[in-house]
Every structure is written in C-alpha cells, then in structure tokens.
Design goal:
By secondary structure, the chain is mainly beta. 0% of the residues lie in helices and 48% in strands. The chain contains no helices and 11 strands. The strands form 2 sheets. Strands 2, 4, 5, 6, 9, 10 and 11 form a 7-stranded mixed sheet that branches. It has a 4-stranded antiparallel sheet with strand order 1-3-8-7, with no helix packed on it. A hairpin with a 6-residue loop joins β5 and β6. The radius of gyration is 14 Å and the shape is globular. The termini are far apart.
Length: 127
Amino acid sequence: QVQLIESGGGLVQAGGSLRVSCAASGRTFSSYAMGWFRQAPGKEREFVATISPNGGVTKYADSVKGRFTISRDNAKNTVYLQMNSLQPEDTAKYYCSAKYYSGIYWPRTRPSEYDYWGQGTQVTVSS
C-alpha cells in the first residue's frame, strides 16, 4: 500500500509560481505512476499531469501544458508539481495519486484509473 501526503499549497498572486509536493510511503514507489489532479468547488476532479514510474514519460492537461512541470525523485519517494504563470482559474485543491504498474506503462488521465490518493493541498491564485 501507498500513503500520500501533499504539501506546498498556499496563496499566490496571478502570474506567480508555486511548487507542490507529494511524499509517498512504501518501499515500491518506483513501481507507481504518479498523477496530479485538481478539484475546484462545484467542479469534477480533473486531470493535471502524470509521470511514469521511472520519470521518463510525462503527460499534461492542455490547460496547464507549458506552465506546469511534473517531476519525481524516487530516492526521496516524492513527486512534485511546479506551477508557473498561475492564474485564478488554477485555484483548486490539488490531489496526488498513485497507480501501480507491473507491466507496460502508458499515461492514465482518469481519477478512476488510480489506486491511491492523498488528502489534497489547497492552491489559491488571487487576481
């Protein structure tokens, strides 16, 4: 099993940057693809970014492509989401998720495809 704890959320002005982190428990972190999702009040949870177990493959939602960067440090059991050029529309609670892979990897973008979830960290972008 994997336990996930997000951190690094906060309040930032439009145009600013923020990096959120997700620390994972367990001894097989490198066997999990990791994802970031976000959910704003009144909206469904939406895909933001995902990264393959070895960090070699990433995929982003069109809305954040070019602004956000997902990365991971398997030695630290941590995945990051660097968010630049933040806009008020990015305001949401950001959730870290993990999906176990025992075979060939391909990116997953739906919440139902992930096995474990953190409690989320709030990111608020003011105008």
